[in-house]
Amino acid sequence: MSREPRPRTVPGPLAAVLRTQLAGALARPGRLLMTGLSVLVAAFVVFGTVMAQQITEQTTVDRFRGTPEAADLVVLGDDDVITDAQIKAVQAVPGVAGVATRTENGVSLAEVSRRYLELQGDPGSGPLSRVRLVAGGYPDGPLELAVNRQASQRLDIEPGDRVGLLVPVGGDAEGTEETDGTRTVTVTVTGVVEANSDREATGYAPAAALNAMGHIEGYPRIDVSAEPGVSAEALTERLSAVFQRTSGAAFDFVPGDTVRGDEARAAVDQYADVFRLITMFLAIAVVAAALVATSTFRVVFAQRLRQLALLRTIGAHRGQLVRALAVEGALVGLIAGTAGVLLALGAGYAAPVVAHAAGLSLSAPAVPVVAAVAVVLGAVLVTVGAVLAPASSAAGVSPLQTLRSAGTLAGERGIGRARLGVGLLLAAGAAGLAGVLLADLPEPGDLNYDSVAGLMLTVLSGTLAFLALITLGPLLVRPLLAAAGWPLRRLGPTGTLAVGGIGGAPRRAAAVSVVVALGVTLVSGTLVGIATLRGHMDRELAVQAPADFDVSGAVNGNGNGTDNGTVNGLSADLVRRLKAVPQLADVTEYRQTDVSVDGMEASAVDLDPTALPSSRLLRPVSGTLTDLGPGEVIVSSRLARGLGMAAGDSITFTTAKKGTLRMSVAATLPDEGPLGADAIVTPGDLDKMGASPLPAGVLANAAESGQAARNAAEQAIRKTVGPNSAMELRILAEERDNSDADIEMVATLSLGLLGLTVLIAVVGVGTTTGLTVLERTRESGLLRALGLGRSGLRFLIGMEAALYGVLGGLLGLALGVPYAWLAVRLLNLGAPLLLPYGELLAVFLGLVLVTALAGLLPARRAARVSPVVALGTSE
């Protein structure tokens, strides 16, 4: 009996379509790579940030943990200290391998600078030591001290130097000299050390030696190491019995691991806000990657339009095509995400090796498996989301498209009515919100204005504006190209062809340019914000730190032997000698006195507002600084707002010695005046207010720029004033340095992270250019056949890629600068808008150059193809 043949299983329509699409995608791995390149970069950046966070945190823990690994138990005094007798008893306890006493104190250097030095007790050697010797030797006798690198560099201290420390009066000791309220203890610096927990200038010596210097009894903490096999719990039980026998005070016994864990968390917490900020920027980068992927898929599906139409002809439904293309997108996301994670993992493990070769120290990260899986899944989701809109559009192709030779979507040159309506609605919403904010801008000094609400509305308006740009982009390409392409058309047929190539596909050009515009918007807005912030800080520092140095007299009263609360003046001889110091420049003396205005206490100075270079940063609200003359005054914002006055008004001062003095307001300041003054007057008018004839202080700058010149100037001031002078030296330049360092850190971090968005945009330009070159292979062959050389073809494609940068740059600047100005005004800092023209121009030109370079590889590939082969290509 013959068997009937079993029927063959015919795959369903969706399975057939899916198999066809995946086979076509895998047959062209180059296109597959270009399609997912932006997602790969985004996955690399995101997972690279995870690795960077791990490296940062682990390095921070390893470098700034203060408790040694050998410390198994830490004993802390509550209200009482640990005595020497108790320490001897602890050392005799079975299971105790070692004990290190700890103490902390702070002193000032007995010099005019009044620099602060933290003191910490440490044994200096052994497993319980927290320091490593760098130069010299560790203290082993009384009145000896080792300093860390920070103290050596900032205070100019080297081994062998003798340094005076000001400690509270508490007894007599060898090597001390008693002064008013303090004792000067002269110590010898024996060496330079480094410690993981150091952030400030610190001196080290055995804790007993430090206690002897300050005549301090006992220690607030001891670290105890256990012998092998003895647990922290057992050690706690034994030591508790010892302390109960020797003292009735309460002590805390904390395992070393617990203390190190607390120290690690405290060290890492300082970076929490930074990485939260990074997360926000990464979200923007992921959005950029999704936009690039959407544009890329749209190009790829347009190139396969006839194939999709053929599938529709043989019965594939639109939904089947959409699902098949979505699965293709998921495959691209899986491959790109996995590749990005693996590259970031390799970079994370290579970073410590490279840092070690460069003389730096970075800790190796762990393998964050959960984060790696999350990034890969996120890449898949982003890619699937990016593919849906192009897939839906491509799947709606008519079956009749199989009879046509065109390879692009119909109607690509315009947008539909629905899209036009949505775009106009978004633009109207953005303009409306911006109009509301502009109508309600805060007045300078308005402390009741809610800046947070205004900034949130600004972000919402900017988001609507960018969505409108995405929607209406194809309509903006042609007018922008008409203006931006004019110079290229002057170059001849090649330039005209480049402009026509971009203008011939406005939807594609808009999709790529919008991603570039996103990066330029963020970068330009950040540059404007940073320039404004820097200008605002410079103006504030011109008030708070008008010069590098301020030499002033000590204040009498409150413990200094008198009760008048006045300031000791500087002698005319000292001022003369300071002006003769060659390491100083802009030496300007000033006097000051107290006055009152309508019951408001105020400070008046006769500092010439134009004598110092920093004065050019002072911008008055009304009047001009150069108008100051006899009978005139420059007043602070506090007086101006409190009395409701402006330049040209009159003001009456009441003084303790001279009665009243009526003056005319020459100018008003947005904040306080230099040296915190409320009123700046001429020397003659300050005399009328009853001021002392002696200068209260002297302001001066270092004669040359740089830290070395400043150190030399500081040493010259110390030498001129003398070591036993009551004068006080304030190094105001350090305030500027700290402010500049903070701004530079914010600028570097922000621009570096925003650069990721620009990087992804440039990847999008290169990908789109590469796919366009494949799409126009026959056109390239025809141009070559008509006489265009390889260099001409490369130049043509490079100009087309550069035009993406031009379009994106113009759109980005048009959005970024106005919204940055609006944000600055809403912050209500009183800072004027500063446009960094040079930096903005550099960003624009650099972007054009980079996008042109992004088209270099596709251009080289197109130029290598023979015209005969290109003309015979079916696509």
Q: Which helices and strands, and how do they pair?
A:
Layout: H1 13-27, H2 29-64, E1 73-77, H3 84-91, E2 96-102, E3 104-109, E4 116-121, E5 131-136, E6 144-148, H4 149-154, E7 162-168, E8 176-178, E9 182-195, E10 202-205, H5 207-214, E11 221-226, H6 232-246, E12 251-255, H7 256-269, H8 272-303, H9 305-313, H10 318-357, H11 369-395, H12 417-439, H13 451-484, H14 486-489, H15 493-503, H16 506-544, E13 549-552, H17 572-579, E14 584-590, E15 592-597, E16 600-605, E17 622-623, E18 632-635, H18 637-643, E19 650-655, E20 659-668, E21 679-680, H19 683-688, E22 697-702, H20 707-721, E23 728-731, H21 733-775, H22 777-785, H23 790-827, H24 837-854, H25 856-864, H26 867-871
Parallel strand pairs: 4-10, 6-9, 16-21, 18-20
Antiparallel strand pairs: 1-11, 1-12, 2-11, 3-4, 3-7, 5-9, 6-10, 7-9, 8-9, 13-22, 13-23, 14-22, 15-16, 17-20, 18-21, 19-20
Describe the structure.
It is a single chain. With 875 residues, the protein is an alpha+beta fold. Strands 15, 16, 17, 18, 19, 20 and 21 form a 7-stranded mixed β-sheet that branches. It has a 6-stranded mixed barrel with strand order 3-4-10-6-9-7. The chain starts with 12 loop residues before the first helix and ends with a helix. Residues 6-12, 171-176, 405-411 and 555-567 have low confidence and may be disordered.
